[in-house]
Amino acid sequence: MNDRTWCFWETNPGLFESIVYRQWHQAWYYGEKISRLLQLSPYEYKLIRGIDFYNYCFGVIGKHKNFEIVYGEVEKIDTNGAIVVNGKTFRGDYIFNSIQIERPVLKPSQYNLLQHFKGWIIETDFPVFETDKPVLMDFRVKQEQGTAFVYIMPFSATQALIEFTLFGNHLLERNQYNEGLKKYISQFLKTDSYKILDEEFGVIPMTNYRSPSKKDKIINIGTAGGQTKASSGYTFQFIQKHSVALVQQLVSFGNPFLKKPISAPRFRFYDNTLLYILSHNKLPGEKIFSLLFKKNKPQQVLRFLDNESSIKDELKIISTLPTIPFLKAALKQI
Hints:
The chain is of the alpha+beta class. Helix content is 30%, strand content 29%. Among the domains are: 5-52 and 112-206, 2-Layer Sandwich (D-Amino Acid Oxidase, Chain A, domain 2); 263-334. It has helices at 50-62, 174-188, 236-253, 265-279, 285-295, 298-305, 311-319, 323-333; strands at 5-10, 22-24, 26-31, 34-39, 44-49, 74-77, 82-85, 88-91, 95-97, 112-124, 135-138, 147-154, 159-168, 194-207, 214-215, 218-220. Helix 4 packs across helix 8 (323-333).
């Protein structure tokens, strides 16, 4: 089932390089007062289709006879290493869990935005896409529903994934996503002649709630384990880094209990600050991202969003953002 896509950037071939469907060395960024073609090297922006990811992973698993795949309803997970699926109990030394078991109860200093998106893969009647230039972010859409942008991943001159994305407290009605996509295609691609080949919909939590990394024998992974970046919703690469760290810990010490987080604590502080600003509408999201990409090298911004930047880079990036709103937001996080 091709129900989703993952887009990410990296400098070297990763674990899933063999199933990368498209990759690019440059990308457009559009804002209210900026139109910039970003040169990304040494980064490459990559796209993986859901169907290829599933086939690859299940193909690897299928080569090992000590794996059993069970489909069903997870009825119970015990901290002593037992899990009940369809009435049958399975036991193990550890349970690696990606299910958000309990709804987070937020404190006054914690925020929870939703990144929600609807995407279409469309085919146009005539060429409209630049095959070597995806659109990383296009903020030239109305912002009345919250921070909103569109991105485009071209597959050919006539076929692309177009994603309408918003940051906000509430989801839209389904037809509102469709209208957003239709309006963008008509206004900016200058065509109404296309057919929809596939579609996807998703919701990603953007929160500074600290998900517990473990509870006795339960090891939380993915979004449930806090691997979604609070200020941007980026998840795919953070999951890979976390998985590598877990495996290394198991190999070296015989247990998956990480001694420290995979990213330096200061990045959580940065995320909390930006999330506060977005949650309380202190600054438009379009203005923040446009300043980041207008006044900094794209490589610096990508490293920063990956939690891999140096303090020198971070000071440079912070200096390009509005001082007063960010200073007030930062003080609230201390």
